[in-house]
């Protein structure tokens, strides 16, 4: 029997080579993330594969699974260790090789595999690895499945089964790109597009798709380099956005598009070099798609702008918006359950249902949607479309460090603090609290519409803080100062990665 994983082994020891290492903190709310090799070793990855196979059979799902890996120095070896475990648990594995996460999700449909296990650390820094998993296309695992997987793996209660198999699917990227192009409407407008990939996986695929659509591509950091020398491939990272903005202005591009490390997210910079946060892009797309599909429902996460409820154009189109928990798995599931036309996350995960997409998040399909929006507005630039939105002042996603084993407790404490303030009529930043949304952390809204959000990151040892004000930039900063003051009452909260 394969050994039960240990939680604490040291590299460069005999034990590290003889036993599986799996740190419990790697099991997140809806996927898995570890530092490699200090938090998980290759035997630990085998144990994870055994656990996935055991869970798939326990769920009664047909044991066909598609897998791929992102572009990092160690991802291929991790995928092979995962495959060894999954085969031993009786899964029939179809390996698509180097891939984007949405390419693996597409594989569930194109290769008729109910299950997926994509080896990726997404936008996390170099040194991280992880797996995004699902057994009910187009959805991925949520907390219930992740909790059960954690129990199986850490308890060593995986089950061996006969019937495991392996097949390498050659040339699958061409099938994926061809499908995307078939979903795109021919562009009538000549467009110049900066395609930024942060030296990550998307560089192998995004420029090829954009060229196939007939746009002029200005490549930016598309060459492979898993040290990510310029910036992390993360369209929420201001360094990446600044680099795109510089390239847009230098080359006179119509739009800049930035893709994250595994290609399921897309960030946008307009033709004037203005960095547009993804929630505002979502409002613009909702306006555009709402004209084609009036009365549609959209799902957005709690980090997103309040414009989804207050924008007069969306109101005129009878658009319905559902604010839901942040996280690709949560929004994906909610879009599926509500039959929404699309779901938008401030992080840049966009989920398009039929007739646009299949319900999963795909940064390349998001790029198509942005280009089609520009094509449907031939007399207006990206900046014009952005300026047409009601003005709000918003922060980027800001993440103060907070250890995985305490971050949820801190958020609970902060939530109770804000509840007590509201009950006592105590103002925040000099304004009355009129609403608290606690579906995912706590979102505090004041009477002038200014709001602040505090939640625990689902995949890193951090909290997440977002602020927006429809009133003024001064109110934005005042709200951030007030929210941060409450956070600082908790000594476990560390420094931010970026602030306003």
- Main β sheet profile: 6 strands, mixed
pLDDT averaged residue by residue: 96
The total count of helices amounts to 16
- Secondary-structure-based class equals alpha/beta
Low-confidence stretches: none
Instruction: Estimate the global geometry from the Cα principal axes.
Output: globular
User: How many strands in all?
Assistant: 20
Strand percent estimate: 15-25%
**Order of strands side by side in the largest beta sheet?**
1-5-4-2-3-6
Domain Alpha-D-phosphohexomutase alpha/beta/alpha: 26-154, 175-273, 279-391
Keywords: Isomerase, Magnesium, Metal-binding, Phosphoprotein
Pfam families: PGM_PMM_I, PGM_PMM_II, PGM_PMM_III, PGM_PMM_IV
Domain Alpha-D-phosphohexomutase C-terminal: 427-484
């Amino acid at each position: 029997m394969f050994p039960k994983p240990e939680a604490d082994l040291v590299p460069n020891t005999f034990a590290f080579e003889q036993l599986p290492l799996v740190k419990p903190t790697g099991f997140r709310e809806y996927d898995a993330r570890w530092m490699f090799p200090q938090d998980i070793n290759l035997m630990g990855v085998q144990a994870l594969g055994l656990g996935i196979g055991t869970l798939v059979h326990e769920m009664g799902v047909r044991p066909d699974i598609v897998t791929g890996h992102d572009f990092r120095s160690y991802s291929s070896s991790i995928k092979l260790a995962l495959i060894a475990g999954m085969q031993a648990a009786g899964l029939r594995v179809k390996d698509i090789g180097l891939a984007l996460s949405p390419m693996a999700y597409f594989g569930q449909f194109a290769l008729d595999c109910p299950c997926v296990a994509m080896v990726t650390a997404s936008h996390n820094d170099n040194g991280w690895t992880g797996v995004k998993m699902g057994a009910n296309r187009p959805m991925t695992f949520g907390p219930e499945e992740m909790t059960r997987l954690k129990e199986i793996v850490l308890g060593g209660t995986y089950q061996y089964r006969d019937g495991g198999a392996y097949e390498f699917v050659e040339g699958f990227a061409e099938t994926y790109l061809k499908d995307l192009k078939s979903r795109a409407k021919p562009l009538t407008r000549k467009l110049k597009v900066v395609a930024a990939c942060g030296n990550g996986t998307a560089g192998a695929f995004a420029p090829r798709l954009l060229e196939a659509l007939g746009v002029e591509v200005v490549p930016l950091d598309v060459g492979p380099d898993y040290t990510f020398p310029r910036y992390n491939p993360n369209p929420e990272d201001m360094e990446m956005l600044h680099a795109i903005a510089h390239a847009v202005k230098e080359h006179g591009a119509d739009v800049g598009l930035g893709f994250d490390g595994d290609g399921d997210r897309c960030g946008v910079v307009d033709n004037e070099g203005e960095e547009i946060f993804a929630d505002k892009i979502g409002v613009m797309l909702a306006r555009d798609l709402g004209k084609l599909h009036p009365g549609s429902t959209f799902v957005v996460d709690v980090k997103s702008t309040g414009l989804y409820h207050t924008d007069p154009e969306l109101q005129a189109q009878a658009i319905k918006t559902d604010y839901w928990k942040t996280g690709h798995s949560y929004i994906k599931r909610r879009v599926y359950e509500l039959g929404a036309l699309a779901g938008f996350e401030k992080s840049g995960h966009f989920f398009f249902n039929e007739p646009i997409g299949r319900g999963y998040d795909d940064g390349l399909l998001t790029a198509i949607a942005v280009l089609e929006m520009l094509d449907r507005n031939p007399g207006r630039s990206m900046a014009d479309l952005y300026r047409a939105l009601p003005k709000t002042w918003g922060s980027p996603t800001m993440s103060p460090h907070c250890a995985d084993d305490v971050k949820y407790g801190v958020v609970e404490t902060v939530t109770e603090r804000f509840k007590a303030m509201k009950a006592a009529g105590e103002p925040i930043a000099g304004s009355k609290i009129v609403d608290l949304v606690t579906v995912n952390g706590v979102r505090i809204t004041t009477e002038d519409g200014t709001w602040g959000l505090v939640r625990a990151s689902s995949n890193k040892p951090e909290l997440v803080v977002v602020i927006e004000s429809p009133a003024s930039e001064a109110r934005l900063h005042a709200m951030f100062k007030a929210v941060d003051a409450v956070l600082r009452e908790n000594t476990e909260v560390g420094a931010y990665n970026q602030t306003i």
